[in-house]
């Protein structure tokens, strides 16, 4: 039986998807989706939310994202969803998705590494230094196992 192309963004996404992205420009979750949309040359409207003011708990966003977080996506075709990495897969331009199954599995591996290891190690640094403009507790960060693993993976450090 021939395999359906359903679920294969290389065949389903010949044109960039357009829609509305509910997001905060300062949030890393929002920015990864914005990167995918820009890479896809999508014409999207950004509806900004001020997280410091708690705007992500507004009725409008809760109707799209029941956990009260950014980002959330509404397609021009009326399809809505949340979870940044899932939205990335939805809007991904064909050239970002490998043809071979093994290569697509490797892509999923690195998306998992990003969510499970890189982001938990990086986020405290980003929040402290970039957003709050405070000094880092380097010793506490260095002692965290995730930080060491990330350093080993990306820098060959110990
Ligand atoms: N797994 C979710 C995480 C969403 C998330 O934690 N968003 C953060 C910004 S990066 C947020 O809205 N924080 C505000 C809050 O928790 O009230 C995703 O990837 O979309």
What does this structure look like?
The protein has 158 residues and is of the alpha+beta class. The chain has a 4-stranded mixed sheet, covered by helices on one side. The chain has 2 domains: 88 residues, 3-Layer(aba) Sandwich (Glutaredoxin); 55 residues, no CATH class. The N and C termini lie far apart (50 Å). It is built from 7 helices and 4 strands. It is 48% helix and 11% strand. The site of glutathione has 12 residues, from α2 and α4. Glutathione binds next to α2 and α4.
Order of helices and strands: HEHEHEEHHHH
Alpha-beta classification? alpha+beta
From the structure provided, what is the oligomeric state, counting identical versus distinct chains? Answer: single chain
The percent range for helix content is 40-55%
The stretches of 5 or more residues where confidence is low (pLDDT under 50) are none
Q: Please, how many helices?
A: 7
For the termini, the CA-CA separation is 50 Å
CATH architecture of the largest domain: 3-Layer(aba) Sandwich
In terms of topology, how is this protein built?
Layout: H1 9-12, E1 19-23, H2 28-39, E2 44-48, H3 59-62, E3 72-75, E4 80-82, H4 84-91, H5 101-131, H6 138-143, H7 145-155
Parallel strand pairs: 1-2
Antiparallel strand pairs: 1-3, 3-4
The chain binds glutathione.
Task: Supply database-style keywords.
single chain; 158 residues; Glutaredoxin; 7 helices; 48% helix
Question: What's the short story on this structure?
Answer:
The protein is an alpha+beta fold and 158 residues long. The chain has seven helices and four strands, in the order αβαβαββαααα.
């Amino acid at each position: 039986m021939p395999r359906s192309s359903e679920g294969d963004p290389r065949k389903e996404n010949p044109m960039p998807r357009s829609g509305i992205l509910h997001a905060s420009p300062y949030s890393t979750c929002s920015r990864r989706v914005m990167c995918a949309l820009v890479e896809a040359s999508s014409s999207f409207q950004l509806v900004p939310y001020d997280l410091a003011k708690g705007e992500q708990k507004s009725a409008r966003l809760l109707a799209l994202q029941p956990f009260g977080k950014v980002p959330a996506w509404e397609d021009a075709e009326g399809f809505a969803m949340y979870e940044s990495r899932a939205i990335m897969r939805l809007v991904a331009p064909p050239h970002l998705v490998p043809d071979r199954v093994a290569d697509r599995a490797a892509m999923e591996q690195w998306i998992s590494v990003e969510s499970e290891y890189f982001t938990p190690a990086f986020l405290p640094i980003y929040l402290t230094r970039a957003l709050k403009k405070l000094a880092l507790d380097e010793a506490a960060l260095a002692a965290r196992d995730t930080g060491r693993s990330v350093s080993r993976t990306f820098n060959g450090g110990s």
